[in-house]
Amino acid sequence: MARSAKSVQVAVTTEYLENQSSPAEDQYLFSYTITITNLGIEAVTLKSRHWCITDADGGTSEVQGAGVVGETPLIKPNDSYQYSSGTVLKTPLGVMQGHYAMQTNDGEEFNAPIPAFRLAVPGLLH
Description:
ApaG_domain; 3-stranded antiparallel beta sheet; mainly beta; Protein ApaG; 8 strands; Immunoglobulin-like; Uncharacterised_ApaG; ApaG_sf
């Protein structure tokens, strides 16, 4: 099978930030580290992001914007770009998912899906 110009893999790790959270005030802080790997045959630029964040009560919020952490990185074939960010939930459990809008060198745009990942305070039975 031929390699596509538009083949991007997204991997995520998460961490509960207990020392920055305040459960008594319904504030649970989580950090996440994203690794975006370009498996395609040409460089791509991450242009924007779109997140859907859902807490355990069913509350949702959407986050959209240019780039990530103030950058619009160019990711060369077989290379990766990694960044860390964070979010606050009102519950000790939630899910994030979304996509990155990417662009090839010739201007073709495509979405790279961010698979759903869990944010959870350690020790939860859910």
